[in-house]
Amino acid sequence: MDAVLWCTLRALARLLCLSKFLVMDKFLTAADAALRTLFADPVAAERSPAAGIAEAALSDEQRKLSAALMRVNHVGEVCAQALYNAQAMVTKDSELREHLLQSAREEMDHLAWTRERLHALGDRPSLLNPLWFAGAFAIGTVAAKISDATSLGFVVETENQVSAHLESHLGRLPEEDEASRAVVERMKEDEERHAAAAIDEGAMQLPPIAQGLMRMAAKVMTTTAH
Asked: Cα separation of 172 and 222, whole Å?
């Protein structure tokens, strides 16, 4: 009897250690994502859509407008990293976690592309990026703790709103700035694909009040970043 009890306790201890290890691994992954997003130069896995397109001779006003819009888009990608990594940290579904991390890796391309465009336009990212990251991470964590369906619902609504912003930017970017327009067009395609993928994974539709609050938060963020 003592031998059985001892073996059972050892098995439970191993499971507890494994559980703690998995939690720590998820936390370290999220922390690494935060540091890379906020303090490192992002590296894209795929070549920027702007590559090979000559820089246009923009007026000061046009350049400032393009830079302001690209800064807003860069902030959106900072938030995407926070949202996806927070959700991946919380979910207990290993397949969903990998799906979310893969989406984050794809969004890292957008982060790098928008950063490159800001550099090319002679401007900088938002100084409030740590604040935007923290807010999006908190939202992603809360949504994921409610349920995976709710978490994916936030992904769908976020991607839909980002896609709408990108569409409006295409109407505002100077026609001459073909490089920035190429990046925005590709980003819009990817965001729509991510939203569709989240729906396929079982996303629920968020209630109108949640959608409205997200639009209000996005309005504050985009106005400040602009």
From this structure: 14
